[in-house]
Amino acid sequence: MSELHPIVHDYVNHVKRRWFLRECGVGLAGAALRSLMVQDATARPLGDSSAPQPSHFPGKAKRVIYLFHAGAPSQLELFDPKPELTRRNGELPPAELLEGYQAAFIKPNSAFLGPKYSFAPRGQCGMELSELLPHTSEIADDICLIRSMHTEAVNHAPAQIMMNTGSQLFGRPSFGAWTVYGLGSESDELPGYIVLTSAKGTSGGASNYGSGFLPTSFGGTSFRSQGDPVLFLSNPSGFDDEVQRTSLDSLNRLNQIALDETGDPAIAARIESYESAFRLQTAGPELMDLEQEPQWILDRYGIQDRNESSYARNCLLARRLVQRGVRFVQLFHEVWDQHGSLAAKIKSNCEATDRASAALVQDLRQHGLLDDTLVIWGGEFGRTPMVQGVDEMDGRDHHNRCYSMWLAGAGLRSGYVHGETDELGFNIVRDPVPVHDLQATLLHLLGIDHTRLTYRFQGRDFRLTDVHGNVVRQVLA
Questions:
Q1: For all residues of the chain together, what is the average pLDDT?
Q2: For site-directed labelling of 192, which of 110, 186, 222, 406 has its Cα 20 to 30 A away?
Q3: How far does the chain reach from its first CA to its final CA, in angstroms?
Q4: At what angle do helices 175-183 and 435-445 cross, to 10 degrees?
Q5: What is the DSSP letter of 109?
Q6: How far apart are CA 409 and CA 61, in angstroms?
Q7: Taking the CA atoms of the chain, what radius of gyration do you get in angstroms?
Q8: Contact present, 445 and 452 (Cβ < 8 Å)
Q9: Contact 351, 423 (CB under 8 A)
Q10: How many helices (H) and strands (E) does the chain have?
Q11: Measured between alpha carbons, how far is residue 233 from residues 207, 224, 241 in Å?
Q12: Dist. CA 387–CA 384, nearest whole Å
């Protein structure tokens, strides 16, 4: 991966050899070209992202489920108890605390706002979690809670893109795309990177799961949460599988002629996308059909209707996807932007997500998947210790200086809390974890050295962690 990826290496050699034979007028060009075409016919197709790739070293994790809670959940109501903030509720922050501070909307004279809900020790580890998270509390001994995340971005779109691509700029490959680029997929029928959404769409949009400058085959495939996973997956009336296969073979032959002539990776990606879509027509309907899941499983996740789109249903689908060899599954759920009505809305949000998030971890363990699956829960930044909203006095602004996330599964310390914020939840006082360090750590768990997972674009090598990132060894088991 410090060298050229096999796909890129094949493409470069492919173009160089064909250009030489076509342009240089070599006398034996015809015979050489025929030999070359036979050789290329047995090689891995350009743009094929499905075949598993070797990692840099044995990784603890084989796959990822990323529960991205966009909108920025308040760590002060969920994960980071602050009794002192409760005691100082209504007081104005000292001027020196706010020196150089940048928030999105908050006014300089905003008072401290104490946490709206109480905390208590959970599990044998004694991890303090909110009363809003009774089901997450049941898995406290399974999770690694990071209370010292921080980011450079102060608004949703750049912060979401930063969390998912390592940059606030549009056009960079997502974490999921880098993972499939590095490791390939283990599924013969489904894409290596699948995206499921619930609630509202994210501010960062498709950039959160796109391929950026990587070949498009590595980007996330967005599935609908009910019915056919993608639109127009089912054949129209009178167009059966045999007719479709014949038509697709004819189209692929034409594309292959163009690919043999030019070596264009976009054509290879097109061939692969057609084949992936055909395979998906067989696997997709069975995947989305929850009729075979027992009622007690649906109850565990909190699924009221097997066919109704919801965060809970997406969590169960995530387990079904990784069972079928999908390398990276990402759920996007954006409901957490509580600038007002904090107490009521965050309670409602937790009622919709807490049970299913915990059930996913429990279900993975029961199926023997948790030991080699990496589960990530978190948003793009945190919320301010100061109140937003003069009238309601019940909201929090964006806060990038500290926020919380939890991880579970392969290679992580369980029942462990990493990092610490000050008594007001304003700054980090111990073991800060910037975004690039988290990304370096997640790649490490997958067996990837983040400094060696690179792709040359516009004259330089890019990577998920840019020129930053250190593995956070303390969170590793």
A1: 87
A2: 406
A3: 26
A4: 30
A5: T
A6: 8
A7: 24
A8: no
A9: no
A10: 13, 17
A11: 24, 11, 12
A12: 7
Residue type, 141: D
For residue 38, what are the CA distances in angstroms to 41, 42, 46, 51? 5, 7, 15, 21
Structure tokens that stand for 137 in this block: 């509390």
Question: Which tokens go with 197?
Answer: 């959404």
Cite the DSSP H helix spans in 93-155.
Answer: 134-138
CA torsion through residues 459, 462, 468, 473, sign:
negative
**Which residues are bridge partners to 394 per DSSP?**
none
pTM for this structure? 0.84
- Could you tell me how far CA 462 lies from the centroid of its own chain? 19
The fold of the 50-475 domain, in CATH, is: Alkaline Phosphatase, subunit A (3.40.720)
Return the amino acid letter for 248: L
Closest listed residue to residue 79, CA positions, set 351, 417, 395: 417
Q: Between β-strands 428-430 and 420-421, what pairing exists: parallel, antiparallel or unpaired?
A: antiparallel
| Tokens at 158, concatenated | 């750049």
Residue type for 440, please?
A
Q: Which of 45-54, 157-166, 195-204, 220-229 has the lowest mean pLDDT?
A: 45-54
Examine the pLDDT at 7 and tell me if it is beyond 60.
Answer: no
Do 221 and 194 contact (CB within 8 A), yes or no? yes
